[in-house]
Amino acid sequence: MASSLEIIHRKAGPNARGLRKNDWFERQRAPMIRTGQLGRKTNFLLLFASFGIGNGSLFLAQSWLLLHGELGLIGLFGTYFAMATLATLLVDWGGLVLLARSTLATKGDEGLSAAFWDLTVVRLLVALLVVAGVLFWVLPSPGGFAEAYLAAAAPAVLVGALNAGGILDGLHRSGATGATTMVPMLLSAAALPFVPDASALHQGYVLGAAYSVGAVLSVGLQHLMVAREGRRLGFSRPTAAGLRRAAFDGGMLSLTLLPGQFLYRGQVAISISLLGAEATGVFVYAKQIVQALSQVPQFARRAEFPYLVGLVQGQARLGEMIRIQWVSLGLSAGLAVLMIALGLGSTVLDDENLAFAGRILAAFGPASFAIGLFSAMVQVFSASGRLVWPATVLLLVVPAGLLLTIPCVMWIGVYGLAVTEFGINVVGFAMMLAAWKSART
Fold it and tell me: Residue 137 sits in which domain range?
């Protein structure tokens, strides 16, 4: 099945106007060289600042609750806020990539509107399934925090189907996308200090409603920003072919997210079964630091994606497509070195648990760089519209890696988790590199 990008490229590729391939490629690349670096830096800084402000506000609010002994509320909110954000991510259905690619591939509003509404109809169906599942769970249950929060946050899932973040990414405004996505975090953080004295039911309703209001504001701001960029998303009647393409491509992109979710949860399950609760607690603490640091190159990757699509359209070589991601790869390498240095440095601390966490952090340094390499190849495939391979590779290497984790943890303890995660990403990178080369020969 040809993707929308492949169809557009065949119709308006480098040879369509009698241009030589290299001439066309240089014309596409020249604006990126002149303006791309500043744009990428600005978008990266905005994404990083949005991440810091949004998560920082939640951290401060939860710290306030901790000082007031509200450990139960922290645990409940953290659990169901994570569920709401995961549902929102699922309902996006790969929109950050698909809509960015469509924005870059189409010059007029008609083609972009068609891509948006094809994907939106699919996303609404996914959102309805998610909300129906939530209501099926909530309605028969007695009223408590979980039921109230999920019911009040359900509108956010439906509104999320209309988000235009991918279009902003395609317009080289990924920093603006990041700024809008922190709104639900800010409102949730603002609501937390006002609910400790309320009943569990009212706590859930207030915090869930704060998330939903934040989602409405976030999506509304995205559409306003798209309009300010001169793009108009008028209604376009979805077509059967467009719906099939959106469902398939979005499903493949969503499948690249799920294995990562299962990997971490599988690691925790293996750790607690083989190593016990205390060692697992230290592992979770260290892994949270790894995951937070790993967000930094991800921001750079978001900013690099539109330029990577331009190279794909110009039929650039793989080396060019890897080199244009030098910022995210450099950050991955730098953070890997930082993790190793911080981890080894913490071994001199008097606190045994902190020193243990430091050793685990150091062990995950090489894995962090391997994740960067694998993610760079995933982004190349995503930019080219070849979405089956990343999903297939992840579905193969993650379960196999988890199976190998068991004997590895039995052999070298908690460090086996880092070794197998490194192996998963190296093998995944090698498989995708081989697939790309075989397709080009």
Answer: 41-252
